[in-house]
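Running this now, will post back.
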Amino acid sequence: MSPQNTRRFRTAKIIQAAAVELSVRDGIANVTTEAIARHAGISTRTFFNYYPYKEAALMGPPPDYPPEASEKFVVGKGRLIDDLQTLISAHLERYLGEREMIGHMLALSDSDAKLEALRNSAMLARRAQMRGLLHRRLPGSDERVIEILAAAIIAATNAATKDWVAGTRDDFIASAHENLSLILTAAEMLGRASD
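Update: finished.
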C-alpha cells in the first residue's frame, strides 16, 4: 500500500491543512498546537503522535519520492532524463490538489525563520534521497557529479513549484519537465565559448 493511502498519512494531512488554515488566518505566532488539534478534530495528544510542534505540522509529512516510482527509476534502462521525468511526474502528481495550501506554506515560511529552516531541511533531505537514487541507478559514478546533478534536480523542481503556486505556470508537471530539460541546456552552456 502506498504511504499516501494509509490512515496515518491522511490524518497527518488533515492536521497540516488545519495548521496552515489557522496560521494564514491568525498568524503563526498566534496559533497553538491545541488550536490546531481542535480545528483538525483530534486531541492534543493525537497531535503530538504526529508532529512534535506546530511548525512541523505546517510542513506536513515528508515529501519523499514514491517508493514504486523510485524503484522503476533505479532499474530504468531509458535515457536518464526521460526516466527522471517519469519519477518526478509520479512525485508531483500527489500534490496537484494542494496548490493553495502549498502556496500558503511557502508564504508562511518566508516570514517565519523556524518554518523556513524546516523547509530548507526538507529540501536537503529530498536532495539526499535523489542522490541515493542516482547512486543506485549509476553505480560507480563520480560522487561530485551525482551531488551536482541531485542539486540541479531539486532546484528545477523547486522552481517549478514556486511558479505553479504563484500562478505563472498552470501545468505543474510540464513546468517541472521543462526545468529538468534546462539542466541539459545549462550543461551545454559550460562547453561553449562566450561570444
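The chain is about 75% helix and 0% strand. More later if anyone needs it.
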